[in-house]
TrEMBL record:
Descriptive protein name: Queuine tRNA-ribosyltransferase
GO biological process, one term: tRNA queuosine(34) biosynthetic process
Cofactor annotation remark: Binds 1 zinc ion per subunit.
Positions of substrate binding: 93-97, 147, 188, 215
Catalytic activity: 7-aminomethyl-7-carbaguanine + guanosine(34) in tRNA = 7-aminomethyl-7-carbaguanosine(34) in tRNA + guanine
Domain of life of the source: Bacteria
Signal peptide feature range: none
Cofactor requirement: Zn(2+)
Active-site residues, record numbering mapped to chain: 93 (proton acceptor), 265 (nucleophile)
InterPro entries linked to this entry: ArchSynthase1/Queuine_TRR, TGT, TGT-like_sf, tRNA_ribo_trans-like
Entry annotated with the keyword Metal-binding: yes
Length: 389
């Protein structure tokens, strides 16, 4: 840690940790969820909405901001905090996931990656040093190293990708010079425990202020995700924050916290809101369903968010099905309130030493809608049946 950053663990409950990560723009109480503001904006919301909802940290996307409006312009306008009107902590990813997801638009080599913009097809080049320059000029509190997010099921290719990821992490650290910005390393290795353990040990040796776990929620099953966390977290420094990238389903957050993860980000709550899916303690509610056309109840009983305090399911359904922008905004407010209140409840349960029972009760009540999970559950039920005689 630099003088401007510190990490304190206040209480552990099993592997779950109640902690605080101090940054130049304020503390992040952990476990925490970071709403995603890809282009320096959480879609349909304003910074004052996020403050009222209790968000303590936001994520912005280096790849997208580099392409539009450009990191130089953001720097000239006072840096990312001033540009987007948010005075709390910000985390910028490295853009590695976006670049490597381009597939047919990029070429990878040992020194970096050349890619074409998804906006206009123009050619660009990311190297570890270039990414650090961009992130430093954006000025977020937490920056991520450039890594290679490879497909999770190919061990031979993953071993090659790890070699690049580790070399690039070392170069990123050497290039990084802002004392008011914490640079996090990113553990990769797909779903293979030995690769994950190796990656965690190598990156721990580079002594980053914090560590991210990347390359999950990209096609593996939930069971594989949880097993990967089991194989990774024990090899990460216990006295530094752990960040699971791109994971935001409530059930996944509960399981990851139980394995020692402190920070999360994901577009899921905001993206599904814009499609009319609302998060509740019983699972997702599809507000487009005709059965809500005359439902006078709020989305969630006893929910304190503005949407639930003010409007009925019937009205929200009307807005969503009519394509009204306010419907997208109200749904987003509710979903982020749900996620941020879930994190607050998790912190309380850890502090009280009751997280294990909370985990059991939450997962029992929450109906998972992920098709892959339903398939796994059906498979397990079939396998549990007695063999035909």
């Amino acid at each position: 840690m630099t003088a401007q950053f510190s990490f304190q663990i206040h209480r552990s409950d099993g592997q779950a940790r109640r902690s605080t990560f101090h940054t130049p723009h304020g503390p992040v109480e952990m476990p925490a969820f970071a709403p995603v503001g890809t282009a320096a904006n959480v879609k349909t919301l304003e910074p004052r909405d996020l403050t009222e909802l209790g968000a303590s940290i936001l994520l912005a996307n280096t790849y997208h901001l580099y392409l539009r409006p450009g990191h130089e312009r953001i720097e000239r306008l006072g840096g990312l905090h001033s540009f987007m009107g948010w005075d709390g902590p910000i985390l910028t990813d490295s853009g590695g996931y976006q670049v490597f997801s381009l597939a047919h638009r990029r070429h990878l080599d040992a020194d970096g990656v050349t890619f074409r913009s998804h906006i206009d097809g123009s050619a660009h080049r990311f190297t570890p040093e270039r990414v650090i320059e961009i992130e430093e000029r954006l000025g977020a509190d937490i920056a991520m190293v450039l890594d290679e997010c490879a497909a999770p099921h190919d061990p031979d290719y993953l071993a090659q990708a790890l070699f690049r990821t580790h070399a690039w992490a070392e170069r990123c650290k050497a290039a990084h010079s802002r004392p008011d910005q914490a640079l996090f390393g990113i553990v990769q290795g797909g779903i293979y425990p030995e690769l994950r353990a190796e990656s965690a040990r190598i990156l721990a040796g580079l002594d980053f202020p914090g560590y991210a776990i990347g390359g999950l929620a990209v096609g593996e099953t939930k069971e594989q995700m949880y097993n990967t966390l089991d194989a990774t977290c024990p090899h990460l420094p216990a006295h530094k924050p752990r960040y699971l990238m791109g994971v935001g389903a409530p059930e996944d957050i509960i399981e990851a916290v139980s394995r020692g993860v402190d920070l999360f980000d994901c577009v899921l709550p905001t993206r599904i809101a814009r499609n009319g899916a609302l998060l509740t303690p019983a699972g997702r509610l599809n507000i487009r369903n005709a059965r809500f056309a005359e439902d006078s109840r709020p989305v969630q009983e006893a929910c304190a968010c503005y949407t639930c305090r003010t409007f009925s399911r019937a009205y929200l359904r009307h807005l969503i099905t009519s394509g009204e922008i306010s419907g997208l905004r109200l749904a987003t407010i509710h979903n982020l309130h749900f996620m941020l209140q879930l994190m607050e409840q998790i912190r309380v349960e850890i502090a009280q030493g009751t997280f294990a029972s909370f985990r059991t009760s939450f997962l029992h009540a929450y109906q998972i809608t992920d098709q892959r999970v339903r398939h796994e559950q059906r498979r397990r039920r079939v396998e549990a049946l007695p063999a035909a005689s």
